[in-house]
Design a protein that fits this description.
alpha/beta; globular; Rossmann fold; about 45% helix; seven-stranded parallel sheet
Length: about 260
Amino acid sequence: MRFKDQVVIVTGAAKGIGLHAAQLFADEGATVAINDLDANAVAEAVNGIRDRGGRALGIPGDVSKIDDVQANVRSVLEQADGIDVLVNNAGVFSLDPARRVTPDAWRRVMSVNLDGVFYWAQAVAVASMIPRRRGSIINIASIAGLAGVPDAASYVASKHGVVGLTKALAVEWGQHNVRVNAVCPGLTWTDMPSAAKLQNPRMYEERERRIPLGRAATTFDQARAILYLASSDADSVHGLIMNVDGGNLAMSSGSSVSIDNIAA
């Protein structure tokens, strides 16, 4: 098992990509600390992992509040010698034309998606990873952190920020043997895009048709990429921005996918 006796924190882990990653980490021997805003959902996720025979503990809290983050880190370290892996997965999505985005809506997205990533990375690195000279941080960005998305200015800006922050931390913390990488999911049927699809189904149907692999990703696809980056298989992988998008960004021309349409 790749993560036997390691301690892994996953934020936003009560559902979706975060929950699936937490389950896989536990399946591979880790003790997983489940963070999410909803304490009841955290307890349900913890119980689910324990029912599978894994080890988990709950640390409910708001990633956008530095006091919550620091309290969560202290709670984990009261129960463990150190933190081996941090997955910054918590995020929110707002779909609205830029001209209508309010300051409060803008700040909410930025505070969760970008501030929260920095607060968690800093707290875990300072309290455990840098002193122990080992650790892996995986930030969950998005292909929206590498290209524009209509009517999602705050989300796009926040995820571009996560990509830049990943590179900055990799440059600073590599000397301490703390690896920092990012996963950029493409279209993945979690709660956020599913809700957005209800508002604009035609756009999302067309978007899925434009993926070269012809399908959206699953949460399992994203979780496996996360585990790879966290594992010793990726010991020299540092500062990587990994797209898990079915080739979506490779299709940069804006053309739709066609099959064998070139005349012989």
